[in-house]
Amino acid sequence: xxxxxxxxKKPTKPNKSVSENGSDSEEELSPETHKKSLEKLKxxxxxFYNFLEENDENLLNFEADxxxxxxxxxxxxxxxxxxxxxxxGDSDESDFEDENAKVVQGKVTxxxxxxxxxxxxxxxxxxxxxxxxxxxxxxxxMLRVTSEDGTTDGEFKVEGSSVFNAVIQMCVxxxxxxxxxxxxxxxxxxxxxxxxxxxKIKGPLVAYLKxxxxxxxxxxxxxxxxxxxxxxxxxxxxxxxxNSISKQALKKxxxxxxxxxxxxxxxxxLCILRITRNQQAALLDLVLKAMYxxxxxxxxxxxxxxxxxxxxxxxxxxxMFTLDLxxxxxHVFLYIxxxxxxxxxxxxxxxxxxxxxxxxxxxxxxxHLWADLISATSNKPQLQPLLYPxxxxxxxxxxxxxxxxxxxxxxxxxxxxxxxxxxxDTFIPILPFIVEVLTTYDFNKKHKKVSMKPxxxxxxxxxxxxxLMENGFKDSVxxxxxxxxxxxxxxxxxxxxxPDISLLAVIQIKQFLKTCSISNYTKRLxxxxxxxxxxxxxxxxxxAQVSFALSDEKMVAAWEARIKTKGxxxxxxxxxxxxxxxxxxxxxxxxxxxxxxxxxxxxxxKISEKEDKAPKPANKGPLVLFPSDSExxxxxxxxxxxxxxxxxxxxxxxxxxxxxxxxxxxxxxxxNIPDKEDVVQDFSxxxx
Length: 688
Prior knowledge:
Elements: E1 16-18, E2 24-28, H1 31-44, H2 46-55, H3 57-60, H4 66-70, H5 110-121, H6 128-146, H7 161-183, H8 198-218, H9 222-239, H10 243-259, H11 262-278, H12 280-298, H13 307-321, H14 325-348, H15 352-356, H16 361-376, H17 387-400, H18 407-424, H19 431-440, H20 465-468, H21 471-491, H22 498-501, H23 503-515, H24 519-543, H25 553-566, H26 569-590, H27 592-598, H28 609-613, E3 623-624, E4 638-639, H29 648-664
Antiparallel strand pairs: 1-2, 3-4
Helix pairs in contact: 1-2, 5-6, 5-7, 6-7, 6-8, 8-9, 8-10, 9-11, 10-11, 10-12, 11-12, 12-13, 13-16, 14-17, 16-17, 16-18, 17-18, 18-21, 19-21, 19-23, 21-24, 21-26, 23-24
């Protein structure tokens, strides 16, 4: 019989095994016996063995020395306590720094950034080491963003968004002035390449500009782009020193100039202008070609929303071409010749494809660009020989398909010719193209469709056949004929030959008045005819007092200048009409009428003097601000007692009396519109 062990004695060691017959085995558990017992367990209970294999592999991979760690009550060995190791893995967003923590070698901290910033802002001499250190830190910040795994191989390492932002902000705000101070360019605006220390800073400067362009390419926010472009504008002097970097910068800037938000476009153009001016001989040809091709590419589709961008590109391109007119002549001659070749192919080969190569917005906007350029340089002789071929291209464009469908294109071309004639002070026979519309179309023909508003010709070149059947088509044609005739005759109203030039218009208008039976059309053109005849009589009266010969060009020019200064009846009438027309255009562009229709209309009753003197009554309840016409509608807006101090009964009584006034004249007396979201912008398509 087995003896019961004495409790006072020490417990036996757990590493002894018990045999199958119940006797104690003094033999220690070896790896071989452990493997055998596991194989036996696999045969007896395979499910439990699979469970161990999935959840506790360390138990199955038994090591020889593992039994030493398992003994809790070993007399000869001390008890071991598990000590956790350090947590590995750095956080990318390590914004908060521990002062007691161990500083990683090369890691940029906010304290280091503030120290560098103080060195850049210092009043003393700027050290080259300070500039190179800041540029290396900027490179480390860029590598953190551009590298796939976020690691940097450089001298510095930027971690955390706060440090990254601090480094970028330091470079943007303080680096340009520090470089200028180091090179000694603060007072003298000389070329950086001629400075004494430029050779020393050349390498770091190239690296910084490359990183800056990478950052510019990766940014999409308009606000950040604005800041970076302002910084690049400051650094443009140094960009122009390196030809390869200049080309990279211009490529990116031209893209921003053509397709970004308004502020970004302007800043991009200013950077292009400054870089090109500093390296004009090498870059002007490339820039003019790239900008013109970008302009043509981006003016393919015209709408009220794209007009401002197209007009801005055209104006800025004119400024670029005026930098050097001798260089520009070759470009302008080549591109006008290209337009003429397209037009010749359309005239000779009567196919739709050739016609579409001319009758599109890219062709018309190109004509507009060259007309603006020749107009802007009318006081210089370089580009004036190109005036005649350009006028011939525009007039033959009108004659290519002179049908009713292409009246909008005709009006666009006529408008270009009028501006060209006015700015260059050159006579161009424009009247036939305007008055021809009055004789070639039958305005007495009854329309098959009714449109509420006239058609807008500002963003179209061709009309659909369904639009020709609307009454809005005829209204728009008369409006455009009236406006163009008035503008052209007003521009030449001070000419000594005005009675002779305007004779064709007088004859055609009189003929139209005889044949047309629509009173709205005849009324407007009769008014225009009266103004033209009045101006003709005025010029004839002044011309009767002339004592010099008409062949004396100087005396004729002096006489016309005096009449222009004195003013003519037609010019005065046109200026008054143009003011009203501009206001209407602005309303149309900003859609002010549509927005105003959706805004709440608040009618405040006029308070008499007696009511002003009388004490204000106490409030009894909320006032219905926007009463509904039908009694069923219950969702009316209301204001609290603190907002209005009138009785609800008074408002109901005055509501009936104000209804008649609202029908006669709908105005908005008071509308609370926030200052940030101004509905009406001081903006015009033609005055961009």
